[in-house]
Amino acid sequence: MVVDAPTAVVQCLSSVLDGRHRWRALGIPQMRSELICGVQLVDAFRHSTGVECDAVRAAATNRIAAARLSTVLDLSDGGAESPMETLLRLLVLECLPPGYRWVSQLDLGRWGGTAPDLACPELKIALYYDGAPHDSPDVRARDKAIDRQLESEGWQVLRFNRADIGVASVRRAVRAAVQVALDLLRMPGVAS
């Protein structure tokens, strides 16, 4: 039997939320691993298939409780290009002051097509998750050039890798780094 993408994601999501299928999800305070995995799954489906949340809601009727599905979809973002980007977003989700939000893959229109994995354009904070390809000297040099360019335009750039997100004590440091960037915005003489 062949099913469409919204039905496929609902079938997979149902088994993840019920704990029948799982993978090792890094912990985030106040979030159950089934929820984290569910958001990662929906992010991946949305990113790779273009399926929209409304289509997932329609396919989930009588399969996943509406409140449970809404929790996952409200946390989902089709711009996440990897499970680690989803984790980064979930880690810093509530770090911004009220009225501000993170934007995934913000197109800044320059620098060879690169885009911050998460950005708050109003506050000029850019977050990157640097996976294994960023370990190469050439890519690191390109990343530093991008960082310098963004910083020259008033952006604060924070880069994180698997080690930063993969260890509980370091995950706290990720949130703390974002908080320091926000605190800098409140300093006299710092443009916001």
The proportion of strand residues reads 5-15%
Rg from alpha-carbon coordinates: 18 Å
Text of the CATH class of the largest domain: Alpha Beta
Low-confidence stretches: none
Query: Which word captures the global form?
Result: elongated
Strand numbers in spatial order across the main sheet? 1-2-3-4
Domain DUF559: 115-165
Protein name: DUF559 domain-containing protein
Organism: Corynebacterium variabile
Walkthrough of the structure:
The chain has 192 residues and is of the alpha+beta class. The chain folds into two domains: 5-75, no CATH class; 83-185, Endonuclease, Chain A. It is 51% helix and 8% strand. It has helices at residues 5-17, 33-49, 53-60, 66-75, 83-92, 137-152, 162-166, 168-185; strands spanning 103-104, 118-120, 125-129, 156-160. The N and C termini lie far apart (54 Å). The model has no long low-confidence stretch (mean pLDDT 86). InterPro entries: DUF559, Restrct_endonuc-II-like.
Keywords:
8% strand, four-stranded mixed β-sheet, alpha+beta, Endonuclease, Chain A, single chain
Task: List strands and helices in order, with pairings.
Layout lengths: L4 H13 L15 H17 L3 H8 L5 H10 L7 H10 L10 E2 L13 E3 L4 E5 L7 H16 L3 E5 L1 H5 L1 H18 L7
Parallel strand pairs: 3-4
Antiparallel strand pairs: 1-2, 2-3
In short:
The protein is α+β, with helices and mostly antiparallel strands and 192 residues long. The protein has eight helices and four strands, in the order αααααβββαβαα.
